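Can't paste images in this forum, so I'm doing it all in text. The chain is below; anyone willing to post the predicted structure tokens underneath?
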Amino acid sequence: MRELVLVALTMLAGGTATAVVAPVAALNTLSRLEDVVATTGLAYADGPRHGIDVYAPRGASEGTGRPVVVFFYGGGWEEGERALYRFVGAALASRGIVTFIPDYRVYPEVRFPDFLKDGARAVRWVRDHAARFGGDPARLVLAGHSAGAHIAAMLTFDPQWLAGEGLDARRDVAGLAGIAGPYDFLPLHSATLKAIFGPEPERALSQPINFVTGREAPAFLATGANDDTVEPANTQRLAARIRERGGRVTTRVYPRVDHRTVLGAFAWPLRLLAPVLDDVSVFVNRVTDGEGAT
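Text version of the structure:
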């Protein structure tokens, strides 16, 4: 732990956080020091990519009515698994938020929009089961990092996906917390992305920015100034569109982090890199208390 702290401090002294500061395994090991309860190995549907884990504040029980976050991880719509993001779930739970992290199917098994359908199914399951873990299903925020932020944004802005599970995005989603998300990323240049998102005439349907009406739940959009994986302009353009349409959005651009370290900053001791955990927690509590975004 001391070595991790020293690495983080050294990077801060140099004014940057563009390298991987700690293996994910180390961050997940440290997360076990958080005073939270993890329930793993659950399933929201049949199939190996439909597992879901829950991280709850210790002492949370049915009827305590805590705010709820469904967090979708990234991986370019090609990879990822929920167990790698224990440090995110534990961090949010340590702030009083009942956090659910689902898996979802990825390319090449599926293409757009199947991972959105999985995401919607996971949200339906969380709505139905949140109270069991001390969460209030009426206080639900969708969140994600990278490709996961894209999924969370699409579920928030394009109502058809949650509607397919009997949910209303405007009624049943209290907020969106997107971290380093691709929201407006056409044209595509990667052959893999072209395969994932289909023929060019249909790709506009995959872009969250194209579905903003201004009547959606408040959004918190954060990015790292040094992100060279997903251009921070994605965050800026989506925020501008939300404001143009009269919606509510809060943005943060953290000056010393990149695509990976903006998420790593959820974990102790890397929280000194950027206050992303504080900002997300404040946002979640604000919107689930009915105050909206600033």
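Confidence is low (pLDDT under 50) at residues 1-21. The chain has one domain: 2-288.
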